[in-house]
Amino acid sequence: MDLGLTGRWALVCASSKGLGRGCAEALAAEGVNLVLNARGAEALEATAAALRQAHPGLEVRCVAGDISQPGVQAAALAAAPQIDILVNNAGGPPPGDFRDWEREHWLAALEANMLTPIALIKAVVDGMAARGFGRVVNITSGAVKAPIDVLGLSNGARSGLTGFVAGLARQPRLAGANVTINNLLPGAFDTERLGKTMAASAERSGQALEQALEQVRQQRAQGIPARRFGTAAEFGAVCAMLCSAQAGYLTGQNILLDGGAYPGTF
Which residues cross the membrane (predicted)? Predict the structure, then answer.
């Protein structure tokens, strides 16, 4: 299916690796020009080079830096003639016990996972509405739907964004102008972040690291009905679908991609 995105411009945050890169690759395959952002300039340029080689007809521009900083936001937004698609993405805050978190920990989580996405949404949606097309996809977490006790910082900040989007997406001035805002909630995907989390669990087991890591991977995968982890390419494909011309009637939704791990009906 042609998703009707050829020639559009997308800003994809945290797109040098993992799920963000998966989204960038899927959009590029649909003919979307890209502004890529990530903190690490070297990894970001490597991803951009790979995308340019795979899709020589596209514009792929890089803005390295912390997207929570206003100057980086301004540079990323200015790198394209217009932003038709915004993919908000940021690494989640660290796990822990809420008793150990101080005010600054909460503020950092809110800045990265709630306030920065809102600032970028604010910067682009009115222009999208004026042009009659816009797609915003926020990469949040399956923990928004099924909270994980040690991820309290993420649960709180991302749930705040989810509540905000639920109201904003339904404004007639946006939804009525073909501007949609949806959230993608990943479960366990085979990314570098998941590998680090499992490695930490393996180290605590007291076994030889390689053996323990394989055991942790198998146990985690067996807890998923699909019996495997998702891939960044699968995630990116769903992101591209939400950005498509055909998805104009889908807004304000939380799309859970977790291989069936969430046990609820709703």
Answer: none
Looking at residue 211, its pLDDT comes to 67
Distance of CA 211 to CAs 55, 201, 227, 229, 248, Å? 40, 12, 19, 19, 48
Angle of helix 103-110 relative to helix 152-168, nearest 10 degrees, comes to: 40
d(CA 152, CA 95): 7
DSSP designation for 98: G
Measured CA to CA, the distance from residue 160 to residue 247 in angstroms comes to 24
Q: What's the token pair of residue 247?
A: 């998805």
Per-residue pLDDT tens over the stretch 38-79:
999 999 999 999 999 999 999 999 999 999 999 999 999 999
Pick the closest to residue 183 from 124, 143, 141 (CA basis). 141
**CB-based contacts of 42: which residues, under 8 Å, 6+ apart?**
none
Distance CA 232, CA 18 (A): 6
pLDDT of residue 195: 64
Helices (H) and strands (E) in the chain, counts: 10, 7
pTM exceeds 0.90, yes or no: yes
∠ CA 259-236-81, rounded to 5°? 155
Return phi, psi of residue 9, to 5°: -120, 135
120-125, long-range: CB < 8 A, 24+ apart: 120/11, 120/13, 120/67, 120/73, 120/77, 120/86, 120/88, 121/86, 121/88, 121/168, 121/181, 123/73, 123/77, 123/83, 124/11, 124/77, 124/83, 124/86, 125/168, 125/174, 125/179, 125/181
* Phi, psi angle pair for 135, to nearest 5°: -135, 125
Handedness of CA 157, 160, 166, 168 (dihedral sign): negative
> Is there a contact between 257 and 186 (Cβ–Cβ < 8 Å)?
yes
